[in-house]
Design brief:
The chain is mainly beta. It contains no helices and 11 strands. The strands form 2 sheets. Strands 2, 4, 5, 6, 9, 10 and 11 form a 7-stranded mixed sheet that branches. A 4-stranded antiparallel sheet has the order 1-3-8-7, with no helix packed on it.
Length: 119
């Protein structure tokens, strides 16, 4: 059974940084690809970054240049480094798998971690 557990959310002022982590267990696919999504109040959930086990990464335009997705394969952990945060980045953030590209619909979701950015 695949389990995804996010951590690292919190409250930060605009311009600040946070790093989210997602610990994966039970995910045994040889092609280990995952993604980060977010959902702001009153908005649909959107994919913001994906990481493929071949090292390919993709980003939504809204976070490109500010967020970096990475993974520690040995620890089976996915990360999202978020810099230059803006109030519009306020949302619940989820990791999901498998997500090998922006249009993939994942089978598994974490419980989410809240990120709040104040002006």
């Amino acid at each position: 059974q695949v389990q995804l557990v996010e951590s690292g959310g919190g409250s930060v002022q605009a311009g600040g940084s946070l790093r989210l982590s997602c610990a994966a267990s039970g995910y045994t696919s040889r092609r280990w690809c995952m993604g980060w999504f977010r959902q702001a109040p009153g908005k649909e959930r959107e994919v913001i970054a994906t990481f493929d086990s071949y090292g390919m990464t993709t980003y939504a335009d809204s976070v490109k240049g500010r967020f970096t997705i990475s993974q520690d394969n040995a620890k089976r952990t996915l990360y999202l480094q978020m810099n230059s945060l803006k109030p519009e980045d306020t949302a619940m953030y989820y990791c999901a798998a498998p997500v090998c590209a922006m249009r993939w619909v994942p089978d598994y979701w974490g419980q989410g971690t809240q990120v709040t950015v104040s002006a």
